[in-house]
Amino acid sequence: MACLGVLFALTEEQSARLLAGGGDERVREVVEEVEEAWDVLRVCELDKAWDALHRCLTDGRLHYDNGRFPLSHAILGGRPLHEGEDYEVCFLDPAQVRAVAEALAPLDGAWLRRRYAELEFEDYDGERGEDDLDYTEAFFPDLREFYQAAAADGLAVVFTVDQ
Question: Which range of residues forms the domain containing residue 94?
């Protein structure tokens, strides 16, 4: 999993449509509609940094359900909505979004750097080192701000990444 990750804050209507079921094809249709709307105030592009960010916010592994809530839910947490292997979609309800926002709020670049250094990243596609850490850290403030804004507006969040 080393492709481009994006977080979207969802309206109640978008959340309802996404959770209504209909399988992978329907999930992709709804996500594509959200992507096409591309509301800059409700999008957080993580590029390839999502992988290292998820690892730093959990236990260093790239899995669902690893690490401790709420930080574990910031990227690959919550409810998986897509069962295919070529695309990931994870949904967080507004209460989970608030918890993630609160947990991220006190964290800063220094925390991220310490966390990155202390963890081993098994099966990591990136090349660990100062350049990778700088790249990952550059996306961290946007991640925190995104969750703060989504929580303040009472919105759900969906994380997507294609492979």
Answer: 5-162
